[in-house]
From TrEMBL:
One GO biological process term: methylation
Binding site for substrate: 194-197
Gene3D superfamilies the record matches: DNA helicase RuvA subunit, C-terminal domain, Vaccinia Virus protein VP39
Release factor glutamine methyltransferase N-terminal domain boundaries: 20-76
CDD domains with a match to the protein in the record: AdoMet_MTases
GO molecular function: nucleic acid binding; peptide chain release factor N(5)-glutamine methyltransferase activity
InterPro entries: DNA_methylase_N6_adenine_CS, HemK-like, N5-glutamine_MTase, PrmC_N, RF_methyltr_PrmC, SAM-dependent_MTases_sf, Small_mtfrase_dom
Name of the protein in its database record: Release factor glutamine methyltransferase
Length: 288
């Protein structure tokens, strides 16, 4: 089978499920991963035969994509902020919106001399560790701690820190009732979090490949208390941010103004709400 024939089979099988554009993207990502090809090289060999082992692996991937399994979990990795991260069903797949949060944090860190001074940084609900690893990679002097309630997620996070040659202090703890002495006895320059923020009632609007495969503890909050984690994080930050320290949060687009109001009422200043590239309220920066 030639590359072009495999490409057509992928797109024909996936288009009814994912739509034509997403099907094309999934096809290219699968082929480039399995066959280790750059785009320019691929275009020059599309009429050539695919090596038998590669063809077999490609169609195993196709079978899983048809079943709705996320490609990132099938491949076992994804790209985030120009870095490679291992992913599996113990952690959420990093999203482009979170890259925007990291970018905002990095701009802020550089503005407060984070490239020449050691800043203490905390990431709450770290998951794959995409946030702390990305920051540490670009701000090597940063002293970063990352916590998660899931020991399985922390195992993946440690692998990603090693993969990207970054030194992160990982802590198993629950931000709703923190107990780690090092954590609660430290003052931080920055605290970041992309906590669970999807309400249970929003499940019916979600794609099956997310709902059936990604960890629910990292996604969902009760409808009766959608700001549960933001309240806990804000209370923690009040006691553990240094004066003029920064709090960065990724948020549910439906509760942007409510989250801003919560932070203002808690006593934070310079609370700024930003939209993501899709024009949705997605992230907040506040100062203590």
């Amino acid at each position: 089978m030639t590359f072009i024939e495999a490409e057509r089979k992928f797109i024909d099988a996936l288009s009814p499920i994912y739509g034509p554009e997403e099907a094309k993207s999934l096809t290219w990502l699968s082929i480039s991963f399995v066959c280790k090809l750059e785009r320019a090289k691929y275009l020059s060999i599309k009429q050539e035969e695919i090596p038998a082992d590669d063809a077999e692996q490609l169609f195993k991937i196709l079978e899983q994509l048809i079943q709705g399994r996320p490609l990132q979990y099938i491949l076992g990795e994804t790209e985030f902020y120009d870095l490679i991260f291992k992913v599996n069903p113990d952690v959420l797949i990093p999203r482009p919106e979170t890259e925007e949060l990291v970018d905002w944090a990095l701009i802020t860190i550089r503005a407060i001399n984070g490239e020449t001074e050691v800043l203490k940084i905390l990431d709450i609900g770290t998951g794959s560790a995409c946030i702390p690893v990305s920051i540490k990679k670009y701000i090597p002097l940063a002293d970063i701690t990352a916590i998660d309630i899931s020991e399985s997620a922390l195992n993946t996070a440690r692998q990603n820190a090693d993969l990207n040659q970054t030194d992160i202090n990982f802590v198993h703890d629950d931000i709703l009732k923190p107990s780690n002495l090092e954590l609660i006895n430290t003052k931080y320059d920055l605290i970041l979090s992309n906590p669970p923020y999807v309400t249970n009632s929003e499940k019916e609007q979600m794609l099956d490949n997310v709902l059936k495969h990604e960890p629910h503890t990292a996604l969902f909050v009760p409808d009766i208390d959608p700001l549960l984690f933001y309240r806990a994080i804000a209370d923690f930050a009040l006691n553990h941010l240094k004066k003029n320290g920064f709090l960065f949060l990724e948020i549910n687009e439906k509760f942007g103004q409510e989250t801003v109001k919560l932070l203002n009422e808690k006593g934070f200043i310079e609370v700024e709400l930003r939209q993501d590239m899709g024009g949705k309220d997605r992230m907040i920066r506040a100062v203590l």
